[in-house]
Amino acid sequence: MMDNGNDQQIDVRSVVEAVSADLSFGAPLYVVESMCMRCEENGTTRFLLTLIPHFRKVLISAFECPHCGERNNEVQFAGEIQPRGCCYNLDVLAGDVKIFDRQVVKSESATIKIPELDFEIPPEAQRGSLSTVEGILARAADELSALQEERKKVDPKTAEAIDQFLSKLRACAKAEISFTFILDDPAGNSFIENPHAPSPDPSLTIKFYERTPEQQATLGYVANPSQAGQSEGSLGAPSAKTAYVPNGTIGATAGHRAIAQSNSTDISDNLFRYSAPEEVMTFPSTCGACTEPCETRMFVTKIPYFQEVIVMASTCDSCGYRNSELKPGGAIPEKGKKITLSVRNITDLSRDVIKSDTAGVIIPELDLELAGGTLGGMVTTVEGLVTQIRESLARVHGFTFGDSLEESKKNKWREFGARLTKLLSLEKPWTLILDDELANSFIAPVTDDIKDDHQLTYEEYERSWDQNEELGLNDIDTSSADAAYESTETTKLP
Fold first, then answer.
1. Whole-prediction pTM value?
2. Cis peptide leading into residue 198 (ω within 30°)
3. Pairing verdict, β 336-343 and 456-461
């Protein structure tokens, strides 16, 4: 902590400008004069920009009023909003008191829920905070009971109902009953500590999801509703910008001409394996960063030994934002797929990898298992995937090197990080497994025929009912479409 004599009196604008500064060498403590909301006298607010190791840049503010003694603090995120939202589900069993010591970072956009109590803390009720599970529950109970005496005089029935609810909430805070603690943040900047890291936590599950348009607007991506409506309208109506790149201008047409007189199928297959498409569709869209109109290009291509995929790329001339996606095409496969690669040499690190949103990653040698959706969908290499895993684990397990962590746990994480890095040095052979319930993932072979690649194996399996339920497949009813398709086929028959 800094002494008051060293506090630097500075304008708030300087605090905002310092957000983008390099915090590796520490940051000064800023002090501003602000009004107390209780007594309306002037108090003091201190701002400290800091970087939580392997987590985020944060702005910690603390207010203190010397006149009435009012004090409060808040944590705000000074970095960027994450590409996807996150949802943490923590199962608290009755009698498990240690679980309440887990540290929790709640951003100003996060919602906390306890389904068993039908209890929800909206974002505006508790601002950004750095606390524990016990601290959040205790704070909620204190805020609900703050005005109970006044409620009993004005509305006794409501006060009695709140008293009954507070007894249940305090029972949860003492681990007398089992409950589920849910932390849902569309901005992706919230966090619940995993004390077992880097190993999986049996009590904690993390899901990452794409934000809805309403959540995007809440986070400030769309300036006003009218602008959003114009953007949606521009997508629905035909536009002069929609165009097709004509056949013959790009892609494999020149190759076709080169072998026009050849009858060898093998030559053409090898020539067009990774060639560009013959037809690219361009259509208008809206930039996800600045909401200005931009263009998205899309084409369909076939990856050998895999399936048909849709490649989409967007560029914004206004702000320079660029984004690319690869989506699976065709029907949903009837079976899941598990891909196992034995990594032995440097050539294996350069293999192309397509990991879908639903694919989990397993490295048995490290006892590492990432659930589906942890890293999102990506097109990369084996080396790039390991690098992404290392960076993602460092980001998600933000308190790994916190001051309050035991030295033994710090050493455990350092040892795991070293073992993860050694994978790329290939000191020993190791195994990479992609387990995809929708069979939309792929690891490229190093031989012309995938059957000759003995380091790479593919295994199909039947999905369980629970897996289909999580994917939303159990509720899909295509009987009407099938009947219409069959009737159309019957009509065409002579």
1. 0.49
2. yes
3. antiparallel
